[in-house]
Structure formats: structure tokens, C-alpha cells
Amino acid sequence: MSVTQTMEEFQSILENEVPTLARETGAVKRKRKEGLDSVTLVMTVIFGFWQIPDLRLSGLAQMMGRRAVKVSASAICQRFTAPTAELFRRVLQRFAQVRLQSDKVEIALFQTFRAVIVEDSSTIHLPACLAGMWQGCGGNAGRGEAALKIFVRWNVLTGQVLGPELTNARTSDHRGPFHEEDLVPGCLYLADLGFFAIKRLQTIARGSKGSFTKAEKRFFVTRWQPRTILYTRSGHRLDLKGLLPQQVGQVRELGVVLGKHDPLAIRLIVVKVPEDVANERRERMKETAQKHGRQPGEDVLFFAGWSIVLTNIARTTADFSQILVLLRLRWQIERLFRLWKEDGKIDEWRSKNPSRQLSEFSAKLCAMIMQQALMQEGCWLDPYRSIVKAAACIRHEINRLMIAFCEGGVHKTVLSILCCFRSGCQLDRRAAHPSTAQLLVNGLDWELELLLT
């Protein structure tokens, strides 16, 4: 679908499917001849919090005037019930199923891959009373009793987001809702260490049946998980400490085997990082471990002095410097979650009403899905795009888009909004600390030691 067809699909969900979903969830028990109907409520909440994430109920009441609905703030407040929260969750599920296919950004390093998939999760803390619905992982002062996790797969080659999928917060990353078998042939897969598992990497590289044709082969780049045993090609256990380079910027690369059973031949790349970078990593490790009530192991702190990378990409396809650039793409999904949280405020709300909090959360995620579709079509082919600036550009036009959803003219309005991306939505070029986009386009300057972070 084109972006205009995608937006029309979102409009169809809101106009045609919401009434049915409202009856199924019990959010609406009888048909209202006048007043606040389910379509007006859902559409206004999504667009209202998209434009102003901390909007008051009085602001929502004002926006409902677009649909000729006169309602008080207290009447809106009364509509945020458990069935309404379930209605918004069902709408979110439908929004997540809409897919926009678009062209690939033209970067030479990407040409080998059919897709570049980055996967990650983010936790949203909820009131303790919701622990029966969304189980957290525990924590101080009851903060972790109830929480949910958002899982996302992001194809940074086209900008397409798969998900978000919601699970209990206690779901571990490597047991998330996405499966390795669903990765497209010829793709590159990137994820944090929370998703690291030998069996997972073997499945990505070989498939569930144990073998791929050359055209079906899939690739991965990942950091090495401390205490993961590696073997030489002859089957001997590798002493990694004895292979570590000692000079900053020095690289050691060799072929190794991952997994004693069903072994997988891969590349090991080890780079010595500056001491200040290593110390910064150790501080982050200690802070993360402290949040979970534990202390990082001595080996974990020791190996922080090196960047240790595993990949099944051949040397003829990408050298070690290009592998390190590809590894940096893993952080791009962190920027996406940061945009959703800091800009879209998906984890913030004014009310203490749990049903209203869940409704706002789902509504804001629906807005972020539509926002990504607009950015995917409007600026993704520019490798220097700034998703923060693009999101701000979209927010200025939200009112126009809502009017189009209510009164018609979505196609013309969307095309007009896309024109706004032509200027002012690019990253600033940096000479001292090049961005990932600059490294992808221009390559890695190995003299810049700070790039080893």
C-alpha cells in the first residue's frame, strides 16, 4: 500500500471497525442517537494525545467539537472504564497489523541484505492494581508489581515497524513474541544481549530445518555474551583472554565455532577500546545490575575493555570496520523508543485511573504507528533523516490530518504533509563525533577512537 492508502486504512479502522469492537468489548452497550459515541472518543483521544501528549480532558472536549459533539470533561472521564481500555487495546492490535511497503534507502553497505532488522523491547510501568493483567518483575515500593513490555522489530532499510507486540514485563527478551523463523531470507538481524542465545543464532543462520540455500541465508551481528564458550575450528575450547589485543584500536579477527552441539562457524572480531570508554561501560553495568539487585561478575567488568563481536557475514562482504558500523545500528531502535517515550509520552499520564492510563497508552501507541508510516514515506530515503525533527514536523500538522479523517480529503492532506519533510528534517553533520548515518554513508574513520563505544 502507498502511504495514503495506509492512512485510509487507519481511517477505515476508526470509522468502520471501532463500533463493532466497542460492542464486543462492552465499551458501548447500546447505540447512542447523539452525544459521545465510540468513534468520536477513540479518534479524538488518539489525535488529541498525538498533538499534545499531556492534553487535559477539557482539551479533548474542545477537539470533539470537530465532530459536532458537545460534551463535558467529566463525561469524558466517566467513559474511561476497563471495557474502554480493552477497546483501545484492540484498536492498537489492528493498527499494528497495517503494513506500509516502501523503497529501500540507498546505502552501499546495505545492498547485500534484503532487510536490516533491529529487535528490542522496552518496559512500561503500571499501577500495582494492574498486576493481575500485566505482571511485572517486582521492585522497590511496588513499582515493578505491574508492568508490560513492548516488543518491536524495525527494518531500518525501509523504516517499516513490525509490532508493537505487548507481553508481561517478566517475559524475557529471548522468549518474546517474534520468532527467528519469521525473518525474511537474506536479511541482517541485530539485537541486544538480552536476545542472545546460541540456539537462536543457529536458527537465524541455518533455519529451523538446519540448512539454507545460498539465496535464503540470513545474517547476524551481535556482541559476545560473557561466559559464552567459543571453539577453534579443530574443536578445542578457545581461551579468549589469551587473544585479547592490548593496544587501543588494535584489532584481532579469526574464525571460530559457536556451540559444541550443532556447531556454527562464525567470525570473531575483538577490538581494544580506550580506558575511559571501558570505565564508562563498567559504570553502566554496575547501575543496571544494581537495579536488578545484583552485582556484575568480575569477568563481565574485565571484558568491558574490549568490543567483542560475533557475526556470520563473510569477510568478502564486510570487513571488520563495516561490521562495527553495522553493530551501531542496534542503537537506532533505542532512539525510536526514546522518541515514543520522551516525545510521544507513551508512559506518562495525568490520571491515577488505571483504565484511563491503559487507554492513553494504547492511544498514544496508535499515534506513533501512524507517525512512523508518515516518516517512512516522507523522509526515509534520506540517510541523514532526523526522526525527532520529522516527528515535530508531523505534530504541527496533526489538526489538519484529524479534520481530513473526520470530513474527508485524506489523500490530499497526506500529500501536503509529506511536502513538509523536504527541509528541516535532517541531522546536523558532525566532524568530531560522526553520527551513524555519516558512518554508513562515508565509512568508518579508524583513527577516531571514540567510535569504539
Automatic annotation (TrEMBL):
GO terms for molecular function: DNA binding; transposase activity. SUPFAM superfamilies: Ribonuclease H-like. Keywords: DNA recombination, DNA-binding, Transposition. InterPro entries: RNaseH-like_sf, Transpos_IS4, Transposase_11. It holds the Pfam family DDE_Tnp_1. The keyword Lipoprotein does not apply. Residues 115-369 form the Transposase IS4-like domain. GO terms for biological process: DNA transposition. Coiled coil: none annotated. Belongs to the transposase 11 family. This is IS4 family transposase. The gene is tnp.
